[in-house]
Amino acid sequence: MRYYNIPIFIPELACPFQCIYCDQRKITGQSHFVNEAEIISTIDDYLETISREDCFIQLAFFGGTFTGLSIENQKQYLELVQPYIVSKQIQGIRISTRPDYITNDILRVLKQYNVTNIELGAQSLIDEVLEKVHRGHTFNDVKIASEMIINYGFTLGLQMMLGLPGDTKEYSLETAKRIIELGAKETRIYPTLVIKGTALDTLLKKGKYSAMTTLEAVEQSVELFQLFNNNNVKVIRIGLYPSENLLNEELVAGPDMRHFKEKVMSQIWNKKLKSIIHNSKDNKQALIFTAKNQLNFANGFKAANKVMLLNHFRKVKFKVDSSLKDFEYHVDYSR
Fold first, then answer.
1. CB environment 214-253: b (16+ within 10 A), e (fewer)
2. Closest CA to 166 of 14, 25, 12, 19
3. Helix (H, G, I), strand (E, B), or coil: what is residue 283?
4. Domains, the chain, ordered by start
């Protein structure tokens, strides 16, 4: 089954905090708050283009702190989606929020209005890092909120960031392990970007912060993805998809987000495919079969994996096998 989100962005509508890395308006490219008519129009436009066969469609409120809105405003937004759920055009609602904005009253309302997935912006589960970025909550807040969300029957997602001030590779790995232990079924991996005008930009200019390189971000993301994958936590996004404005004008420093997921997945396949090199001693050709959604990743970013294998095989070809899934593959060799 395919999963599809219809995104509605509410940048900083309810969040009273200003984390040192954050400027939602520049990240999303959206500077105004959507009204009811815009939400309905967005839903209708997306539904016209989505093939609904074997597809689970959610309305996703992203960007802001949804549960920081008043209960009345939350209901107002959620009520807009209910006719689409009744007609089965949309199967559920996804929201993103902060761990310290979760209460029993809020969760009861969300349950009543067919919310299915709740993502918490954990960012880090190391208190030292959370304090340095002025996150405004602790690991314990995330732990309590996660337990409540699971107990109410929602699917829990915990988002994490790499390369925050005070963060280390070891801290990021520990955050990932805690995300697994807390029972999250989904996660997002976001390398930190330095945006013009933020407090993090000021730290960078003062020499008190060093941004991650693209290579560092890719290598860490590869390790984290494999850890999550091995523990049945779905990675639903790797890297930001920033607005053109952010890419061209507002980004000061940080990993290159263009084709970032492709680079990460390419590295994962690179490690897997190196294991077949020893077969090149007796064979000249390798025909590699993968699942359809992995074909390009197996081939590699800018065909890097194919080029690597061509150093050992005279001919290398990738082909889809519909019986395969995820990272399964098999190879036919010939002379």
1. eeebbebbbebbebbeeeebebbebbbebbeebeeebbeb
2. 19
3. coil
4. 2-258 (3.20.20.70), 272-334 (no CATH)
Distance CA 307, CA 202 (A): 42
Q: Specify the residue for token string 């933020």.
A: 198
Contact 149, 119 (CB under 8 A): no
Type of residue found at 296: N
96 has a pLDDT exceeding 80: yes
More confident residue, 244 or 249: 249
pLDDT above 90 (res 86): yes
Q: Do 186 and 160 meet the contact criterion of CB atoms below 8 Å apart?
A: no
Rounded average pLDDT over 265-278: 96
pTM of whole model > 0.85?
yes
Q: Is the separation of the CB atoms in 251 and 242 below 8 Å?
A: yes
CA dihedral 18, 23, 24, 26 (to 10 degrees): 170
Other CB atoms within a 10 A radius of the CB of residue 271 amount to: 11
